[in-house]
Specification:
disordered C terminus, mainly alpha, 3 domains, single chain, elongated, three-stranded antiparallel sheet
Length: 299
């Protein structure tokens, strides 16, 4: 709240502004050689009424100032407490922080401060924090964390075992062997598997054309080319599929897919299923064991 003197000074400033506005209205009219018009008269009279009201209010403020001076009491300034009581008439106000309450993050700040003061030595940082009574009361967690007994239980971060870490658990996770599925998928996609062949018996001859005739465009009454075709025959004699694969007995027994079975499928499925049947000669597929390690495929 403003004092009486401050209020009086503000009203006096307003009174001066109104007086200047009234003087400007009259000066403008005099310069034109005219009297005030209706609007100018209204503005002038309003400013005059405002100043009359301000003069009355200023007079009343002066009376209040005089009354305050008559009722003033001597100030006791021998001590800070007496001076405060004399100025306000009230007991001095003291601001105190609520006990046990600290700003957010203060615990971490004191933890870092203790470690910095101890240059990273946890035992010395614990002694610094424990020796501060304020820290003990407000942030006891800092002392608990810096306790050497707790520090012995804190270990560095240990990386988790993953399937990609070659020095940890990756060797325990192996790729599954899907060779048989891939073979079954690939067989019908080979060139031989896509050929539209027809089964024929052994020991036969098939005629074929080895040369063609010569032809050309000719005009009327022109010489026409003369040529001959050429033919011979193909003999399909007895043939067989044979192969030798060297394997150990343990490999044959333990592998998946089974190597012998896959060999039969590769040869038998691709060729013997196209072999002639009935009263015509057809190849057969078998195997024999030679010694302990060799398997022979014959037909």
């Amino acid at each position: 709240m403003q004092t009486y003197a401050e209020q009086r000074a503000a009203y006096e400033a307003t009174r001066g502004v109104n007086a200047a506005a009234m003087k400007k209205l009259m000066d403008d009219a005099a310069a034109k050689g005219e009297t005030l018009d209706a609007e100018g008269q209204t503005q002038f009279d309003d400013f005059a009424k405002d100043n009359e009201a301000i003069d009355g209010h200023i007079a009343r403020l002066k009376k209040l100032e005089a009354l305050n001076i008559e009722g003033a009491q001597p100030v006791k300034g021998l001590s800070e407490e007496d001076g405060s009581a004399s100025r306000r008439g009230l007991a001095p106000v003291t601001v105190k922080a609520a006990p046990g309450k600290v700003m957010p993050g203060m615990g971490f700040t004191r933890y870092v401060k203790a470690l910095a003061m101890a240059k990273g030595d946890c035992a010395q940082a614990f002694a610094i924090a424990q020796g501060n009574d304020r820290w003990v009361k407000e942030t006891p967690d800092v002392i608990s964390v810096l306790d050497p007994a707790v520090q012995h239980l804190i270990k560095a971060a240990v990386a988790a075992g993953t399937t990609t870490d070659t020095t940890n658990a990756a060797p325990l996770v192996q790729y599954a062997n899907l060779a048989s599925e891939f073979i079954e998928f690939l067989r019908p996609m080979t060139i031989v598997g896509k050929l539209n062949t027809r089964a024929v018996p052994f020991k036969i001859k098939i005629p074929r054309q080895t040369g063609g005739a010569s032809v050309n465009w000719v005009g009327e009454s022109k010489v026409k080319p003369v040529s001959a075709l050429a033919f011979d025959s193909i003999t399909l004699d007895h043939n067989k599929i044979a192969g030798i694969i060297v394997l150990t007995e343990e490999l044959v027994r333990l592998t998946y897919p089974n190597l012998v079975t896959e060999t039969f499928l590769c040869i038998g499925t691709g060729y013997t299923r196209r072999a002639p049947v009935g009263d015509k000669m057809s190849g057969t597929l078998s195997y024999k064991k030679t010694g302990d390690t060799t398997f022979g495929i014959t037909s």
